[in-house]
Amino acid sequence: MSRCRSTLCCRVLLFLALAFSTLPVIAAKAGDEPGVLLVAAPGYGEPDFSKTVLLLKRHARGGTLGVVLNRPTETRVDELFPGARPLKGLAAQVYNGGPADPGQVVFLVRTQTYAPRNALPVFDNIFLAHDRQLLRDILRHPVPLLGLRVFRGHARWDRGELETAIARGEWYLVEADADTLFADDPEAMWRRLVARIENRDVRILVPGRDARAAPAAVHW
Description:
220 residues; alpha+beta; VC0467-like; four-stranded antiparallel β-sheet; 10 strands
């Protein structure tokens, strides 16, 4: 294991021991924290998550919703929602959001002037939701959007499972940013993020600086 990976592992172990014991003091309520990125470490062998980048967002019920950002499929959004207004570019594709509940639709939307109903704020004007009717309404009406990603399925871990994997150095926790969430080349997303992490050109969330670094890895 590299020195960087070993240092990160030790820091996360310490942080997980502290953050979960103080979480009610750190956050006013679950769901307030911005979303974070979970980046698979090089060599991580879990088939479902090898070379993946996920967005994690806590919701008000205390669980975490996670979707894989960099696995576009050949399915188009208008195949799932007949009658939807035509979408262009990467917004028109459906992404494989993860192995859990593959029939469920989750979407990430960036708006100009409004907060969609029943949506989780990720940060700024970016939201994550699994309200199928909300997505149908967005697709059928000319609501100004700055970005859209539609996923089938999501990621889910048993209680403690994700924390253990992070402590083993299998994942990096990274601050999320809009350019990554709506990247124009999702298949290169993981490689670019790992290069930035190794070059220390991206902010890795570590203990003592970010309470949001520890997602609530429970069933959603």
